[in-house]
Model the fold of this input.
Amino acid sequence: MNCAEENLKKLIGAYGKMAVALSGGLDSSVLLAFCARELGAQNCLAVTAKTPYMMLEELSDAARLCEKLGVEYAVIESEIPESIRKNPPDRCYLCKRELFESAKRAAHARGFEILADGTNADDTSDYRPGMRALRELGVKSPFLECDMGKGGIRKLAREMDMSVADKPSYACLLTRLEHGADADIETLRRVDAAETFIRNLGFKAVRVRVHGGLARIELEPLKIREFCALGVMEAVSAELKKLGFKNAALDIDGYKRGAMNGFEIYT
Done:
């Protein structure tokens, strides 16, 4: 056990009981599993927000993990808040502020005073306005406190024999839209279905960014040549048009975190 893991073990142990904001992604899944191992499943609670801009696959993964761990699972259902319906640049802050307030209330109602999330050391190198909301609400981030980044979290997942060990990082579906774009449920569902189709073809790290009627596909750079193989592009194009996109394009620069930060609709 390395220093970061040892510190994490001590930190979690000192809390005694913990609720975890579970998205179904790598970081929060590993945090919940680690807490269940160290504290016992009966001393853990998972709180998941179910909204139109969350990936259905992630929600299913979250439910399966809680069942496997024997951890109580609380689901907060919410529509798209009015404050983010136009996908403003500070969307992440506004969203997290509202959802984590609800998560804290759900945790407190079940006897859990501490709510934690999967924010890690690598997140500090990216534009993450939502982290301000976590600080304001007193949400704990054990991985960040122990200076553990993505590599350490994946290592921990493998040690616990978790299937998420090699799972790519995802983000809420609103990150696929331009700032100022209407966050309508139908568009979000089309994006989710498009990405699911492409992932099922073997391209796990994928984003389908929306620019009007155009779907811009981002993949890992090393996967672009494979995507251009005979038959794959044709199948993706046909499926995306079936879903309602007028055109589909492949971004030759590949997947980039925060790729929509510079895109804004001006009216």
About this structure: The chain is about 45% helix and 15% strand. The mean pLDDT is 92.
